[in-house]
Structure formats: structure tokens, C-alpha cells
Amino acid sequence: MKKAAKKEFSGFFKLASETCLKKLCNIKKFSVPTLIIPLPGSLICNTGSQAQSMWSRRASPMHGKMAPSSRDTMSEVWKPSVTVAAIIERDGRFLLVEEETSDGIRFNQPAGHLDPNESLIDAVARETLEEAAHDFTPTALVGMYMSRYLSSRTGQQVTYLRFAFTGELGAAHDRPLDHGILRTVWMTRDEMLECESKHRSPLVLRCVDDYLAGKRAPLSLLYTHPSATGVLHG
To answer: Are residues 95 and 211 in the same domain?
Structure first.
């Protein structure tokens, strides 16, 4: 290619390139953009007074902030405290336990926390045995409830997710009641209402009312995968 033709072609290519770059960067006075890569996955088009390019905003969902690690994110996930309760009725009276708590002596159904490697059904049977010294075979789910508790003594807030079961009360066992349990009592719904201020939570009476209203769900509604109660294999 002759020298004059080569110079003309080079000038045409430069003009065409500058025109495309002007449109791309959308600025009145052309200046060649400088690409800066501060972190992997972040691309910034710096044209002096121009803001961060659309590319960088799409590439970095945190808009310039470093995303937290998966470990930090998992540690900040809020979780409720899962509990179970046994709603046991006999001749119009309900089985309760009188127990010592941080807020004084309170009434509650046989109830407690779900333990690791335990199904909900196994948990309510265990809690009834530990707190009321009776076997218990769940036959239906009365309901699932969520409430938040504020300790008047410590000021601590805890949210509970309660699974309440009804079923058949079995044999009594000669064994000490769980730590903090003073005795077991049988109360009618009216008697429970009279001492409502002494209930462990508002859910004590609500579960009884749902039971009396005939609310039942099959236990098949609750599925426990073997990984929750067995050994995990990597």
C-alpha cells in the first residue's frame, strides 16, 4: 500500500474509532477511557467526571462494597427457637406442669426444645416423659405457633416456634421430674383461664382452645429426612 493511501486509511480508522468511543462513553468532549480493575469482577470506566459505568454496577451487586463471605452471612442469619408441646386431655382436664422459671413459678404444658438429631415427634414424647413422667404417643398435630418472649428479669428477647401435639397418655413411671419442674397438675379450661397470668406463654391457653375447637392435622404433614436424625456422610 502506498504511503499516502496508508496515511489516509489510518486517519479514517482513527476518526471512526473516536466516533464509536464517544457514543460508548456518552461524553461531549472526547477523552480515551482508562480501564481500572480494583478487584476481580469489578470493571470501572473512568472518563474524568464520568460516573461508574453500567458494566461495573452489573458486575458488582454490592455497588463497590466488598460482599461478605458466606461464613459471615451464615453467622448473621436469624433463627427462632424450636419447641414442642403435648396437649393432653382427660375427662375435660388438661395436663400441665408447674415449673420454676427466671420470671417465677409458671404453668405450661409438658414442653421443651427440639434437640439435635431428633424428630419433632420424638421430641414431644421425650419431653412428656422428662417433665410429667408419662409415656406419650402423638396422634395429631394441633398447630404450629410463633411468639416472642421478653424476659422481665434479663431483658432478653427470644422468638419461639412451637409445634403442639395431641395424643394418647401412656403408663406412668416412677422417676424424678425434670430439673425445675415442681409438680404435674390437671386443670379445666376455666381453671387455666383463672391463672392465665401465671402461664409460661400466651400459647398455653391458645393451644388448648385450638384443641377444643377440633383443630387437628395428620402427623404425615411433618416429614423428617434421615439426615436430620442420622449420621451425615460427605
So the answer is: yes
pTM for the model stands at 0.68
- Are 51 and 106 in a shared domain? no
Q: What is the pLDDT of residues 101-153, one digit of tens each?
A: 988 999 999 999 999 999 999 999 999 999 999 999 999 999 999 999 887 77
Encode pLDDT of 94-112 as tens digits: 999 999 998 899 999 999 9
Query: Cβ distance 197 to 103 under 8 Å?
Result: no
Number of domains present in the structure of the chain: 2
Q: Which three cell numbers stand for residue 48?
A: 474524568
**Range list of β-strands (E), the chain:** 34-36, 44-46, 81-87, 89-90, 93-101, 104-108, 111-113, 134-150, 157-172, 181-187
The H or E element spanning position 3 is helix 3-25
